[in-house]
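Feature request, filed as a ticket because there's no other form

It would be nice if the structure record came with a short human-readable summary line next to the tokens. Right now we just get the raw output. Example of a typical job, pasted below so the devs can see what we mean:
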Amino acid sequence: MSNQLWDTLCQMCDEARDKWGVSAQEIADTLQQHRSNVSRELNRLVKHGLVEKKEGRPVLFRVARTSAGIQVFGRIIGAEGSFRAPIEQAKAALHYPPYGLHTLLFGATGVGKSMFARLMYEYRRISTQHKGEFVTFNCADYAHNPQLLLSQLFGSVKGSYTGASQDRRGLLERADGGMLFLDEIHRLPPEGQEMLFTYLDTGCYRKLGETEDGRQAQVFIVAATTEQPDSVLLKTFRRRIPMEIQLPKLADRPLNERIALIRLFCEEEARRLKKNIVLEPVAVQAFIAYECPGNVGQLKKDIQLSCAHAYAEQRTEKTLYILQSHLPLEVKRGALRLRYLLEKPELDHLIGTCQISTKDPESTEAGEEIPIHFQMPRELSDARYADRDNIRKIVEPQLIDLAHQLLSRAEEKLGKAYPPKVYAGLAMHIDAMVKRLKKGKMTSPYNLNELRKKYPQAFIVATESMTLIEKTLQIDVPMEEIGYLTLFYAYDESDNNWERGTTAVIVMAHGTSTASSMLSVAQDLLDISEGWAIDVPLSMNPEHAFEKLKDLAVKVDTGRGVLLLVDMGSLENFGALLSEETGIVTATIKRVSTPLVIEALRKANLGHTLEEIVNSIKANEDQSNVMVRPPVSSESGENARYVIMLCCLTGTGGAEQLEQLVKEHIHLSGGVLLQTVAAGEWNEIAKQLKQNRQRVVAAIGLWQGEDSVPLSMSPSDILLDSECERLQRFVNLWEQRFSLYQKMKSSLAVNMKSDQVDMLLEQFLDWLEEIEQKAGEYVTEDTFVGVAMHFVCLVDRLKQGERYEGRGDKAAEPPKTRLAKAVLRHLSELERQTRVVMPSFEKSIFVSMFNCETFSV
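Raw output as currently delivered:
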């Protein structure tokens, strides 16, 4: 009854976790045995330490929970999570009398099978009376040599085979009273599996060459495989290993366990290297998000490789900074999975800055610790609430990494923590500095002596930072930059510049949301709430717009002036009028753009004066206000029929930045062309496109061409998920139409009698797209193919002289959609262009085909 009672007790304790244990009577009822017999057997198990007993009425029993044993498995990350079930299975197998249940571990490469087997051995040695050795054997080593395999497993006697000069102990003999771990059991051939049958059945075996009665050994066998057991092991072999435990993949484990593993492996490397380890946000993000097909084993290896690369560059430093450049390629790609990662709800509880402390094993002072700063990326938290890539759309990754490294060192030396807006501000400052130095331009210097007196510690750190900047960027940095770095390092969150009085920045632009959208992007990026916007719809009276500006300026002016960022027209004169009527000092920057708003707010937040902000922006502006662009070539018409105009008001730099922004957010496959255009070039470029038979389907920026466009968007709209998705759907419509148009041209040319199929299709397409734009509705790809094929075939037959007579079938349904009604009104224009007269019943059928699903923008 012992085995049956043990199984029942384990099961009942597992089911009754809210109770201390179960009574002998409950077990007796389940087993249908007499209570006194069950009680006697339970007391025997208590004596052996396998069961715990609690006196009372009734007396309760439960499986022993040895504190030492719990401590062994408690070292596993996820012991109360993804590994809870495997641990409980392992304990049940280990405690099963008399010697335990042989166990099979299976799971993918790198999940920790060898580690788990070792912990099973430690737990067994501590919590039971079995104190034998832990013996490991890789079955792959002798998979193709059964004779040697037999000798390894069971041992051999002298003379049993050529070269056997003495008796040899086998693995079973060595592991007697302990555990034998058979790794890669799937590499053991069928004959090798059969060799173990006798021992698994009886506990007896013979050495190779022996003829006497078998030997006995009490060995607990744990086997491991990366394959599914039923595909590689004999059924008769599996039947003899009753306990099977599957270990989870890293991808199936919760996110908090993955982060704990990253911390653990960083801790191990810090001890080995005796250095602080700082993982930059982008590196942490990548380690958390990459797929890691090799599971925990690969994660550990990749962290070691990253530390090795960082160590090679920073061997003399006290702290290793793990940057994105130090990561293996497969890990770097992990950052691309960020959106998937953000869907995990537990991420909300894990964002923040964690610090790990580890003891230096060779420290001369007791208790001395090495702090490991494990920095979680703020971008992860921000991205949940704003679907934009923030600063990475404006600043190169190398400069972002450099800004992180500079601020991390400053935090360590100055004993302070910087908010995200300082990180963003420094990254953009470095970006602006690099561009300025490449153009040979200098900036207004600070009084370095005054800064040294006011911020002595920050000044020293700034001076030390110059070497790192020059080494990283391979450029000579003027000493004046020490002043800027000092101000960044001296930043104090509690000493708010805006409360102290700074230059007020007001954005004004035509449109219902243009100004507010640009300001919102800049505020999110810099993590500030300051700055103001006034949207000026085209229908708003200029006098009303000025009154709104005057009321706002009076409220927000702190005595240091107001900077106006405007787009065009009458808004350019508002600054002078505002100063005259209110006495507020103002400055106006024309042709506002999102990068310009970001730069102005950044400098204002750092405490720059109005004059300094204006001079800095003007120094970085391109000298040419009109972007020079080569004419649109006719060759581009062969590759794309549709065009999105990128309307730039800020010169060449702004044009390239806007084009890059669109390419990063919108997928283009050849049917749609991006065309940048500067102020004053709208009509000229549009005319060239028409000559190339290309159609403008959308404009991003302030479009002022003579012809209207189907879709007009602000540059900042690209950063909003809803607007970006709307544009992508619209682009997909034209991409698909272009592809279908190309296919129909080749197909119809073969099947139609007319030699003017291309011209007919072109005329129909031009007419249809004009009607769609007027109606504000666009046909789907299925409808487009149907109506285009129907029309071209109809006209082809009419031009060949075929006569049509009225049909007697059911009349076509009248026009219902806006598009169908517009088609009916303008059908005569299509007849005139193609020089055909459609029969009335064919007109009705043709119009009714537009009573279909349409796409609206």
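Something like this underneath would help us a lot:
The mean pLDDT is 77.
The two ends are 77 Å apart (CA to CA).
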